[in-house]
Structure to design on (662 residues):
């Protein structure tokens, strides 16, 4: 297989050397070579979204050149393209991040290699640095000493009252002193001695307790500080490595991309020269010459060919003069008087009366302009959109809580074709959802809570009764980056635009008894999962093998769509999709079930409730044991619920075409 550079180099050889050789031998370019030239321009100017036209007017001219048979002003197009070539400008450009074969570019560091290097950084750091080696600033210890709670002097008895400590038997004093002790001097003196020893014992235990609590608290604070610094230093090293890799990958792809872009533009320049030469060669101009008596002669102007035509010039006396018209090229004609013509009139001759009014057009002969009317077409277009906003503000609120702000935007559109005999149906729909939330707090950040872009196109031919032979293309992805919030603690990107994207191509039977119900069974289904930027997003998280950017898998798919109007103002719509992998049908399957309830309060305000369930066997979540250690990964049911009140607008109309009655 050729790399991208190799393909571009072959294109340059093909369209500069070989094409010019064919032109030198044959003025009519061969059909296969012409088709290849056109496909090259279509690839970079029209079909491939990774390549962008540098100047809009150049793209317009190239597009017109490709369709010059239907379009007009070919000469102006060729002139503009020649002007662009003279200033040596580029025709197309591409951003480095859109390089499709980035994994094969020398020097590019893929995600899998980054992860290996990060693990090596972690192992090296843990081997060289120990948490206990981290120096704790004295201010941390002083603050800990000030924060620890101590038993004040004179309140040591509370330690015994709370059963923290107990007295030894030799210091035991009864709560109620019997009269026998009070009446005995020896026993009373012993009681006084025990009381003195108890006070000394209580003070000793108080001091010991305070020292123990202080030591434990300081040790805990020091441990937390060292653990935090230890992890902070490790994350700094990892972040520095990631930044270096990101910068390296950018410059590697930029250098590679600049070289490819230069080669592609050289190839396009060569192809344009060939196509302009060919277009200029085959383009013709039809010229009509009409004499005074309405006799017409057609002249074909064309490059590379000489043609002669004769026209008789007439005057009012019906004198004739033969003139030869010669085609020089498609822009020039040469006029010659026939050989043998002699002018011999030297005297005046009476002229015939001539009514010049007869040359004026008869406007009365124009047909009446018919009235216009509208004709209904098989197309029906429409959609609806809603924007919801929720805001909460709290200040000195005794019951607690936080201020918050959230938004949700939902846009849906469709363009459906249904032939009058209901034999052909073509349904196209697109949906865009985007929602953000900002919790309260000074350090809070905007967090994404919904992000979806989906496009579906289904084409069906009537099979029998309410069944259609159908084929469908379904594509969905997200537009913005997703994180595990807060982003400051989890900087790793979980998802991004086209990372991942999921595409389904389905062929099967569609049961459609009415516009509210559709059951599509497709035993031939191909599922594709693709991650555009493997350096930013880990493709392994979505079931892609390490070192790859995508995977395909065949399976059976079932789609159920149903909508109903519960009341005049309440509607319900459900979409259920199930995909069973043929490779492992009893273990691997996907489920996507979306439920939408809508209550229309008035023309522009509605309430929406959405319940969305997803189960994808290729999407894994970490599993932790009882001690909090990661023990593996497994697929889990994903659940999302939205309840919003917002502004809405709906469009649903037939496409009309204006006709004029003759």
């Amino acid at each position: 297989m050729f790399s991208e550079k190799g393909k571009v180099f072959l294109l340059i050889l093909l369209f500069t050397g070989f094409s010019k050789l064919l032109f030198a031998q044959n003025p009519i370019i061969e059909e296969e070579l012409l088709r290849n030239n056109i496909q090259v321009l279509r690839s970079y100017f029209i079909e491939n979204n990774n390549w962008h036209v540098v100047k809009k007017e150049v793209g317009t001219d190239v597009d017109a050149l490709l369709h010059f048979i239907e379009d007009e002003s070919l000469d102006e197009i060729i002139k503009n393209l020649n002007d662009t070539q003279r200033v040596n400008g580029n025709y197309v450009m591409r951003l480095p991040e859109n390089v499709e074969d980035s994994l094969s570019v020398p020097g590019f560091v893929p995600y899998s290699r980054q992860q290996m290097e990060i693990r090596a950084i972690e192992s090296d750091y843990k081997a060289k640095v120990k948490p206990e080696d981290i120096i704790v600033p004295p201010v941390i210890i002083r603050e800990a000493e000030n924060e620890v709670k101590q038993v004040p002097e004179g309140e040591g008895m509370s330690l015994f009252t709370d059963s923290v400590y107990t007295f030894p038997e030799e210091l035991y004093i009864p709560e109620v002193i019997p009269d026998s002790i009070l009446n005995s001097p020896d026993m009373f003196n012993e009681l006084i001695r025990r009381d003195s020893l108890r006070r000394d014992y209580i003070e000793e235990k108080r001091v010991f307790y305070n020292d123990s609590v202080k030591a434990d608290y300081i040790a805990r604070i020091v441990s937390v500080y060292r653990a935090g610094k230890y992890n902070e230093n490790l994350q700094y090293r990892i972040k520095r490595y990631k930044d270096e890799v990101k910068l390296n990958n950018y410059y590697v792809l930029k250098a590679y991309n600049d070289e490819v872009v230069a080669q592609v533009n050289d190839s396009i320049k060569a192809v344009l020269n060939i196509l302009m030469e060919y277009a200029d060669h085959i383009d013709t101009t039809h010229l009509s010459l009409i004499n005074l008596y309405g006799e017409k002669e057609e002249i074909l102007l064309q490059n590379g060919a000489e043609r002669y035509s004769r026209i008789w010039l007439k005057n009012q006396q019906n004198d004739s003069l033969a003139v030869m018209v010669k085609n020089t090229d498609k822009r020039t004609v040469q006029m010659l008087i026939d050989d043998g013509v002699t002018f011999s009139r030297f005297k005046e001759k009476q002229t015939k009366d001539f009514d010049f009014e007869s040359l004026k057009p008869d406007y009365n002969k124009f047909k009446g302009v018919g009235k216009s009317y509208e004709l209904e077409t098989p197309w029906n277009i429409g959609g609806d959109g809603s924007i919801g906003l929720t805001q909460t503000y709290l200040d000195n609120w005794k019951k607690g809580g936080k201020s918050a702000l959230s938004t949700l935007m939902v846009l849906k559109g469709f363009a459906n074709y249904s032939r009058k005999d209901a034999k052909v149906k073509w349904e196209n729909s697109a949906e865009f959802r985007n929602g953000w939330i900002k919790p309260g707090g000074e350090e809070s950040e905007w967090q994404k809570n919904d992000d979806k872009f989906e496009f579906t196109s289904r084409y069906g031919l009537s099979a029998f009764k309410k069944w259609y032979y159908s084929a469908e293309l379904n594509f969905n992805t997200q537009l913005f980056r997703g994180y595990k919030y807060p982003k400051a603690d989890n900087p790793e990107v979980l998802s991004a635009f086209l990372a991942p994207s999921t595409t389904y191509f389905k062929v099967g039977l569609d049961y459609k008894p009415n516009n509210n119900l559709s059951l599509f069974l497709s035993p031939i289904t191909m599922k594709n999962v693709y991650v555009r930027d493997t350096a930013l997003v880990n493709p392994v998280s979505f079931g892609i093998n390490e070192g790859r950017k995508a995977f395909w898998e065949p399976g059976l798919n079932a789609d159920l769509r149903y909508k109903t109007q519960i009341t005049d103002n309440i509607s319900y719509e459900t979409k259920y999709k199930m995909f069973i992998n043929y490779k492992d049908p009893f273990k691997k399957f996907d489920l996507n079930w979306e439920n939408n309830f809508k209550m229309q309060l008035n023309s522009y305000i509605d309430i929406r409730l959405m319940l969305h369930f997803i189960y994808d066997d290729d999407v894994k979540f970490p599993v932790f044991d009882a001690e909090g250690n990661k023990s593996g990964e497994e697929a889990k049911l994903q659940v999302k619920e939205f309840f919003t009140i917002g502004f809405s607008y709906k469009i649903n109309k037939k496409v009309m075409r204006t006709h004029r009655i003759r």
About this structure: The first helix runs from residue 4 to 25. Residues 12-16, 18-25, 344-349, 365-371 have pLDDT under 50 and may be disordered. The first strand starts at residue 51 and ends at 53.
